[in-house]
Amino acid sequence: MSLYQYFQKPGPSGFGHGSTAEDVTAGMSLAGKTYLVTGCSSGLGLETMRVLTLRGAQVLGTARTLEKARAACASVGGDAVPLACELSDPRSVRACVESVLARGERLAALIGNAGIMALPRREQAFGVELQLFTNHVGHFLLVTGLLDALADDGRVVMVSSRAHLQAPREGIRFDDLAADRNYTPWGHYGQSKLANLLFAKELARRLGGTRRTANAIHPGVIPTNLSRHLPRAAEAIFRVVRPLLLKTTAQGAATQVFVATHPSVATVTGEYFADSNLARPRADANDSALARRLWEVTEEIVEKLPR
Ligand SMILES: NC(=O)c1ccc[n+]([C@@H]2O[C@H](COP(=O)([O-])OP(=O)(O)OC[C@H]3O[C@@H](n4cnc5c(N)ncnc54)[C@H](OP(=O)(O)O)[C@@H]3O)[C@@H](O)[C@H]2O)c1
After folding, report:
1. How much is the mean pLDDT over the chain?
2. Which has more pLDDT, 192 or 231?
3. How many whole angstroms from 224 Cα to the centroid of ligand 1?
4. pLDDT tens profile 115-158
5. Neighbouring C-alpha atoms within 13 Å toward the C-beta of 279
6. Ligand 1: distance of its center to the CA of 210 in Å?
7. N or C, which terminus of the chain has less Cβ within 10 Å?
């Protein structure tokens, strides 16, 4: 138990900072349901897939390559189906969409979990800064492509981050999506995570009048492979604060699993969660005009991507 957790009480949901994905699904049977989890090969995605299959669900687990997805799916021991989905490669994402649609299952939830963080140097895919492309554009292509497969009461859960607070003051830099000016590893990670929040918000609006929901979450701070690009000094600090503040992977996967499965949030949509409870993002994450503009600009980007 971390020191922070020691002082934290569970929130109104009955869960909190210290709850694990197993805790939030205790007593739940997910038999007969199918979930899709991106980034199943590591960290929170792997734990999410493990716990969903533990509760009897089938999980379509996507990773950058089929080999990685196969290894991850084999490791959880349950009903996990490996699929390739390299989010920075539109052909791979579209092939994944086709594979899922061809299976014919209805998805109980789609968990957009995969992500990269704080790339030390500016990288791009198709003229878009790579964190924004991977974390947002790739998921946009996947999720919008799979809406026909989402169950009538299906849920979309986007794994954002509290790091969305570090996005530029103007929100999304629409005039510099390539990050040609002033690239910063954290500012652009923050922008991509704000984009995850805005995407969930606008998707929730577009799903209005149906029983389908879309929400975004912050999982907490968890030592995973996500920190691979951090300088060594930051890694060392991470190790020191770990017992004080950080969550385990089991705890880190809780919020996305809670929002994807728990009956108490079946009708909650357009919201942001942390520690398996409603949370408040920064103000412009609730700006519906900004969310709509991001959706439209992303549609334009997607339209120009190779088929
Ligand atoms: N850990 C934290 O403290 C923390 C805090 C806030 C938010 N988050 C968010 O939580 C999510 C999961 O992160 P994690 O901590 O579990 O990190 P992780 O252990 O690095 O897992 C990330 C997953 O995403 C996959 N991925 C990366 N780039 C991809 C691409 N281009 N196409 C397809 N898959 C790709 C990775 O595959 P490879 O391993 O093959 O690259 C891996 O399976 C991320 O969205 C992250 O932003 C994490």
Report:
1. 95
2. 192
3. 8
4. 999 999 999 999 999 999 999 999 999 999 999 999 999 999 99
5. 23
6. 30
7. C
Residue 128: count other Cβ atoms within 10 Å of its Cβ.
20
Q: Are 294 and 206 in contact (CB under 8 A)?
A: no
Q: Please provide residue 156's backbone torsions phi and psi, each rounded to the nearest 5 degrees.
A: -105, 125
Cβ(82) to ligand 1 under 6 A? no
Contacts of 6 (CB under 8 A, 6+ apart): none
Is residue 277's pLDDT more than 70? yes
Residue range 26-75, pLDDT digits in tens: 999 999 999 999 999 999 999 999 999 999 999 999 999 999 999 999 99
CATH number of the domain bearing residue 18: 3.40.50.720
Q: How many CB atoms lie within 10 A of CB 176?
A: 13
Task: Please give the sequence-ordered ranges of beta strands (E in DSSP) within the chain, or none if there are none.
Answer: 34-38, 58-63, 80-84, 107-112, 124-125, 128-129, 150-159, 213-218, 272-274, 277-278
State if residue 68 touches ligand 1 by the CB under 6 angstroms criterion: yes
CA–CA dist 161, 197 (Å, integer): 9
Using the predicted structure, report yes or no on whether residue 99 has a pLDDT greater than 90. yes
- Residue 248 DSSP symbol: P
Query: What distance in angstroms lies between residue 171's CA and the mean position of ligand 1's atoms?
Result: 22
Query: What is the C-alpha separation between 81 and 130, in angstroms, rounded?
Result: 27
* List of residues 6+ apart from 143 with CB closer than 8 A: 110, 112, 156, 199, 203
Q: How far apart are CA 147 and CA 59, in angstroms?
A: 17
What percent of the chain has a predicted confidence (pLDDT) above 70? 95
Residue 61 tokens, joined: 């687990």
Residue 229 belongs to what domain range? Answer: 3-303
How many structural domains does the chain have?
A: 1
